[in-house]
Amino acid sequence: SLSLLSIDLSITCVGRMVMMELNDTTVIMNLKKRFDQELIYTYIGSILISVNPYKLMNMYGTDIVLLYEGRGLHIFAIANLSYSTMMDAKKDQCIVISGESGSGKTEATKLILRYLTAIHHKRNVTQQILEATPLLESFGNAKTVRNDNSSRFGKYTQIYLEE
Ligand SMILES: Nc1ncnc2c1ncn2[C@@H]1O[C@H](COP(=O)(O)OP(=O)(O)OP(=O)(O)O)[C@@H](O)[C@H]1O
């Protein structure tokens, strides 16, 4: 299952490989090839595609946050791009996370919040949002055939960051 994180839309290449033929089959085949090598993140243009690994990946620790600093094929790169663009351009940013049930939207949201917590000096606000998540989930989540912890509601999170 796939989840899409979008900054804007343009489709040119996947990873470092320029694809001569771009269609659903070649894109899916390339995602599968990368997934088999445990590469769960892939860019298509500026859209980051994430394939749910359904297992703990050793790629989300604080050391990794610092290592990525927003670069590379990682959910943290999207978070950092939004953060640094907001700080530099002084413009609000929006991250759209979409995908079918069980594709990893909620987990991606938590990772983005965790990243912001790690890099922004006013940490407590983001930490509070993270801590509110289990409470919201206890009211609005349910087990479904697709996902043991399925959000049965849409979620819009707005974070105000002070300089
Ligand atoms: N990056 C990840 N690494 C490891 N496991 C993950 C990751 N993303 C998701 N999962 C696993 O997949 C499960 C479903 O993910 P999640 O709840 O985020 O899906 P969702 O897209 O929000 O689904 P729904 O729309 O039903 O709420 C998680 O409980 C977790 O076990």
Automatic annotation (TrEMBL):
Keyword check for Kinase: no
Species annotation: Periophthalmus magnuspinnatus
Family: Belongs to the TRAFAC class myosin-kinesin ATPase superfamily. Myosin family.
InterPro entries in alphabetical order: Kinesin_motor_dom_sf, Myosin_head_motor_dom-like, P-loop_NTPase, Unconventional_Myosin_ATPase
Any one Gene Ontology molecular-function term assigned to this protein's record: ATP binding
Superkingdom, natural source: Eukaryota
Keyword check for Nucleotide-binding: yes
Binding positions for ATP per the UniProt entry: G99, E100, S101, G102, S103, G104, K105, T106
Keywords assigned: Actin-binding, ATP-binding, Motor protein, Myosin, Nucleotide-binding
GO cellular component: myosin complex
Name the UniProt record assigns to this protein: Myosin motor domain-containing protein
Myosin motor domain location: 11-163
